[in-house]
Write a structure and sequence with these properties.
alpha+beta; three-stranded antiparallel beta sheet; 3 helices
Length: 120
């Protein structure tokens, strides 16, 4: 049986990967840009990437413990499909690309807000 908690853990894994990939691309864009003082921006992005990598590590441990695995990612024109296994059961999650971008934006804002609260 696939529970809501299992689906939430798989969804978190998908979005953690997306956010890490996005921030790495942004980091490269800053490195390649004509910004005169790059170091503070790169340090900030590196700090967020490090936090996301730690979260991803915890998520991966939890997925392994609960028998969850994403086995395949298929991209179509406007959709992305993830096939997954949960303790022998198979399932499919489909995401609208524009919806994923919006959700990724929300998750980044939450990450930034939580970081600000922790620094106060």
């Amino acid at each position: 049986m696939i529970t809501k908690e299992d689906k939430d853990i798989i969804t978190d894994s998908i979005y953690l990967d997306l956010l890490i990939q996005t921030l790495n691309i942004d980091r490269q864009s800053i490195e390649d840009s004509r910004v005169k003082i790059k170091e503070p921006y790169l340090a900030l992005i590196d700090r967020y990437i490090k936090k996301l990598l730690l979260d991803k590590q915890e998520n991966t441990k939890l997925m392994r413990k609960k028998g969850l695995k994403i086995v395949k990612k298929t991209e179509e024109d406007m959709m992305i499909q993830y096939d997954y296994l949960v303790r022998g059961y198979t399932g499919i999650m489909r995401f609208w690309k524009a919806g994923m971008r919006l959700q990724a934006k929300k998750r980044l804002h939450l990450l930034f807000e939580n970081e600000e609260e922790n620094n106060e």
